[in-house]
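Supplementary notes for students who missed Thursday's class. We covered one full example, reproduced here. Read the sequence, then the structure, then the short commentary at the end.
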Amino acid sequence: MSVQKRDYYEVLGVSRSATAQELKSAFRKLAIQFHPDKNEGDKASEEKFKECSEAYEILADPEKRARYDRFGHQAPGGFGPSPFEAGFTGNINDIFGDIFGEIFGQRGRSRGGKQRGSDLRYNLEVSFTEAAFGSEAKVKIPRHKQCSTCHGSGAKAGTGPKTCPTCHGAGELRMTQGFFQISRTCGHCQGTGKVITDPCATCRGAGKVETESVLTVKVPPGVDTGTRLKLTGEGEPGERGGPPGDLYVVVHVQEHPIFIREDTEVICEVPIIFTQAALGSTIEVPTLDGKVKMKIPSGTQSGKVFRLRGKGIPHLNGYQRGDQHVRVTVEVPEKLSKKQRELLEQFASIAGEESHPQSKSFFAKVKELFGTEEAEDEAANG
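Structure (token representation):
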């Protein structure tokens, strides 16, 4: 009596309209959950692993999926042997691709082919002004370059790489694990299929040597801490003729003793004296472009903020600039001469409430609040 197969969509736990990515994600979760390496000796998990693998193998193939959707398991001609049936000689990694690469720690390394070089990172510190207006910086990058003695082959002059005796030139080792066959990159030749028996004396068989390169980095106006500048092709050289990686320069902006930055806005706090605030004045204010004159109206209160348009930070990759915000603080003298004290006391004696509208309003509210509370207390106490 044959065992009735479950619906493949039910096995993977997806709808019949599932996309290829949804099928892949569902299978990945199940394959990791029921993988024999994580459930050693568990026959039930082994069977579930086989079942979900077979379901994904059919549904991941557009042609097979179309036939299954139309005829189900009874499709004319069937779907070919399961990857776990006797006589199947294919490599399971060829069927399930990077899904099994993730399970076994392999991430699609190309055997014996060209490989892109690694990316590099450099932390660049710039001043507040350099970040605002842009600059150029010379940076020294330690990296590898092709060995000029062996021209990257890694072998001594007059010799060359030989076939790897471990994998016999295949670049990978195949092995049986449980009930299926997997492949791993050959550790002897690192997947190249070749080994150096007589290495170059300069690079010791590596095909590249470490050096220090001096590069010019153009810092555009408006960068901020965390901005990444990409220098294409300035990373590590590729393997076996592959393209080089990239260099990422990460900007760190120094603090300024006067200015504070918020995105493209600049904030500056300027102290003024009592008479300037009361009578009004014109003061000099520092900006990124130098000093400018700014008018202080009479009666200016401490904490008042004035805007200087277009005196902030340029927009990154743009043409406009932010604004500068000047916050004035009224400085009260800590020590007074006898004459100053006399004049201030005279001023205090003749200054009416109209001279201090904020104080008048505040104390009126206090009187109203506490006067009401006192009246309520008196009424409650009889």
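Commentary. Confidence is low (pLDDT under 50) at residues 86-95, 101-112. The chain has ten helices and 15 strands. If anything here is unclear, bring it to office hours.
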